[in-house]
Specification:
mainly alpha
């Protein structure tokens, strides 16, 4: 699988901005065609959702224009969910204070 992505990454790394925009448009349309062929909903697995979050969050609001296999609402729901789970982990861990000996 890595062998498949290496040439693509090399191509993208050497491309100009306008060429990159064309790559994104092509890939977006290719994804749209594949999405139209898939019947019903597409359910992502947890590791797939994590990958989409990892690469989608740095794009900010521009992700709304790029998303093709999930809705923008679903993506933003994942972001909120991830933030809540991080907050719960930090809030739930309280420092233990040793009791005074009498």
């Amino acid at each position: 699988m890595i062998q498949l992505f290496h040439p693509l990454l090399t191509l993208i790394a050497t491309a100009s901005d306008s060429l990159l925009a064309n790559y994104v448009l092509y890939l977006k349309n290719e994804n749209r065609i594949l999405r139209d062929r898939a019947p019903g909903e597409i359910h992502t697995k947890p590791h797939e959702s994590a990958q989409l979050l990892k690469y989608g969050k740095p794009l900010g609001k521009a992700i709304n224009e790029l998303i093709t296999i999930i809705t923008p609402g679903t993506f933003h729901h994942w972001v909120r969910e991830e933030k809540r789970s991080r907050e719960k982990k930090t809030i739930g861990r309280q420092e233990r204070v040793p009791c005074c000996e009498n």
